[in-house]
Amino acid sequence: MSNVAVFGLGYVGCVTGACLAxxxxxxxxxDIDEDKVAEINAGQAPIRENGLDDLVAAQVAAGRLRAxxxxxxxxxxxxxxxxxVGTPSMEDGSVTTHVLESVIAGIGNALRxxxxxxxxxxxxxxxxxxxxxxxxxxxxxxxxxxxPAEVVLCNNPEFLRExxxxxxxxxxxxxxxxxxxxxxxxxxxxxxxxVDAKKFVTDSRTAALVKYACNNFHxxxxxxxxxxxxxxxxxGADGHAVMKLVCEDTKLNISPAYMxxxxxxxxxxxxxxxxxISRFAEHxxxxxxxxxxxxxxxxxxxxxxxKLVRDTGxxxxxxxxLSFKNGTDDLRxxxxxxxxxxxxxxxxxxxxxxxxVTLGRLRGRNLSYIDRHLPHLAQMLVSEPSEVLDHAExxxxxxxxxxxxxxxxxxxxxxxxxxxxxxxxxxxxxGAASDARAARAA
Length: 442
What we know:
Elements: E1 3-7, H1 11-22, E2 26-30, H2 34-41, H3 52-61, E3 65-68, H4 71-76, E4 80-83, H5 98-113, E5 118-122, H6 130-143, E6 151-155, H7 165-170, E7 175-178, H8 182-190, E8 199-202, H9 204-235, H10 239-246, H11 270-283, H12 289-310, E9 316-320, H13 335-345, E10 349-353, H14 364-373, H15 377-380, E11 381-382, H16 385-391, E12 394-397, H17 407-410, E13 414-417, H18 428-441
Parallel strand pairs: 1-2, 1-4, 2-3, 4-5, 5-6, 7-8, 9-10, 9-12, 10-11, 12-13
Helix pairs in contact: 1-3, 5-6, 9-10, 9-11, 9-12, 11-12
């Protein structure tokens, strides 16, 4: 078993650290956020993820998981560092790496003070070439010339989906390590002995691009289905029926995953990674017409939803689901956040029901994002379905949080399911029934 330091206790780092501890490794979590560190040491997960609270509590109690803000102490107590800090988009779409650079420099400085053989493994999503041309020089400079031991810098992209991250950790599509020397990958592969998946070693540039390729492909599939759904709605066809038949053709590697017309995609990965690839293509004068148009198409899906609300002429709006998907409290780049931001700007009164989102538990970039976009969120969030039902003249079902209640039966006004209604014609009798309920309520 290994001694592992996990840098960054967000959605990826916290899950990675807790699962490594469950598998018998000794894990030290490292973060500059003292609140996150305190929560881990108290046996509490600092983020919302299905099953994570119990797993963190069990591993802290067993003595295999703890957290600190002290980089030097974490490096001294470990043989492997796994870095899972954020690499968010800048305004121009390029990748922000200053936090990652700071962590790598800190690890190098700690090793220079106490030299030993060490592995530095980047789990953060990073464009191909940045590890080799930016991160490696930073590490080498921190270590200093004539460093007496071998320090390996490699990457190990993660394939975790928020809301099912624990399941995905143990059953990923594969485990991937990027390094020029296959022997150097073995200590990283050994960490995943309990993981049920094929394991691959490739060069670090290829490994980095695989992550972007997967996320870009997922984003393209969502957008493709939404555009077909919008065309189907305009022609009076059922977009879901169309796409179900399209997905029956699996001979050309079309997967049913993401192939459901619905609302705009969001979250911390797909939009960011699309911007990164598009920005890189612009810099290199590459014409990637489809990828460069995906975000614009996604924005059009948001505008279709806004038009749906605007055309009702109603002002009191209810939302079911605010995080970008059910099972997580991640609000970063959630299309529902932008939806609410726009509606409130238009003068609508909005109430939101999402049991996954608790303001007191939001941390880091998640909290700063919502502070920028919805500073008055506390006044909009309600804790019971009845509160949003009583308020809403128009009710929008946004995520699978809505599956726990029969909103169509109890809604006093119009109910739109953004997971399906943007791709299906609304039957006239359903609209009439909604208007009748609204009239009775009035």
